[in-house]
């Protein structure tokens, strides 16, 4: 079981459904939801001793600060976070360019389409088991 998950998405219904799937699957001990990238960043302590989430489910299209902006903010910390924190894009985007762009971020371990489901959770588990 994963210890801590952050769900970052401005869509309340999507957050509700994602949280419901995570809870019903007993996927994580703690689930934290944030409606903006800034809110999540404020709660993501990047100090050496602070506990990190094991997993972030990140929407791309959000007002003010997008998922891309969130990932860009983490760029300076990528080497320290690699292997400790996995990001999975969870989006309604079907653009191949978004999927391709997500591959340029070392912390991004996968690109999933909304809504989150059991198959997506199985993919996350499998991907996290076989870290590169």
From TrEMBL:
BP terms from Gene Ontology: phosphorelay signal transduction system
One Pfam family this sequence matches: Response_reg
Methyltransferase listed as a keyword: no
Segments forming domain Response regulatory: 4-129
InterPro entries tied to this protein: CheY-like_superfamily, Sig_transdc_resp-reg_receiver, TCS_response_regulator
Keyword terms, alphabetized: Phosphoprotein
SMART domains from the UniProt entry: REC
Record carries keyword Repeat: no
Gene3D superfamilies: 3.40.50.2300
Tree of life domain: Bacteria
Sites bearing 4-aspartylphosphate, chain numbering: 59
The name this protein goes by in its record: Response regulator receiver domain-containing protein
